[in-house]
Amino acid sequence: MYAQLVETGVKRLKTLDEMAPEERAFQEKIDAEIKIEAKNWMPEAYRQTLVRQISQHAHSEIVGMLPEGNWVTRAPTLKRKLQLMAKVQDEAGHGLYLYSAMETLGADRDVEIGKMLAGKAKYSSIFNYPTLTWADMGAVGWLVDGAAIVNQVVLQRTSYGPYSRAMVRICKEESFHQRQGYEMLLTMMRYGTPAQKEMVQDAINRFWWPSLMMFGPSDADSPNSAQSMAWKIKRQGNDELRQRFIDQTIPQLELLGCTVPDPDLKWNEETGHYDFGEIQWEEFYQVLKGNGPCNRERLEARCKATKEGAWVREAAVAYAKKQQAKRSAA
Ligand code: FAQ
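Above: inputs. Below: predicted complex with Phenylacetyl coenzyme A.
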């Protein structure tokens, strides 16, 4: 496996023979499926890759609260409102969990969040799209959380222990999110008015391609994949996971009685997978550059929340210090 990656990676990776003894021992441990823990030796580049990926993941969870938070006050029933509030709160919890996992690598939470607020650190492209109707809440749950699960289930086996353990819990909650989204759409398609059914189809039309982009660029254009796969930070390539998502989502789409905006989507008997059309990568890279429909709005909302919530963080730190002083005195 490792030798193959050395050959096929976008960047040429070092062979075991070319590695320093410490680095080779590290790679052998990874190859033997032994988890790396916070206090273990690790190559600096491994640490930095994890800080990059985990912090981006955490920022995504936090920014990801905004498109759905937008609809909490407009949920159509009390039950839907409670569901949506619980989901949005779960995403906050995932973000905090992930920031904690990132801190075990010696990274500073405020510094990393500062990079995101300054527009210098990425978060998932999907959250730069607007949520225009109530059906978008269903589409986000079903498609966005659905895509997130496909990616995160695999990350439960990532080589870094704290990240892998965080993923186990996060995946359980994401699966509830996916199901509540799907059930919402199914209800609208089964019992809704023609206008509501149209709303569902419109939401799917807008979220389909951006959901496929969540998996990142094609493996051939992914600068980080080869090394991350060799280190088993990533366990499967971007394309393989995207294909898995499509294969498992289309039967659910058919049950809904909806379509996706892809005339090239077709079951391929030979490969046992769905063929699909060309992804508009130019759009993806524009969103990454900050030019998506909501990039500016999302960053402004996070900057405002950080500023307005400063007194809460200060009070929490002061309280924790007071409690610690009391405990030390006792
Ligand atoms: N958006 O070489 P690769 C969620 C960047 S959680 C923005 O393939 P890598 C839950 C990538 O960072 C969703 N940027 O990179 C929820 C890299 O940039 P850099 C988040 C993207 O890291 C639901 C560059 O492109 N999930 O949704 C994207 O090996 C509902 C080259 O790409 C995770 O973060 C993108 N879509 O693979 C919350 C999962 N794709 O840093 C609220 C963990 C790629 O070199 C509501 N992360 N880029 O400048 C991963 O698995 C990986 O980081 C990938 C990217 C697969 C996302």
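Strands lie at 266-268, 273-275.
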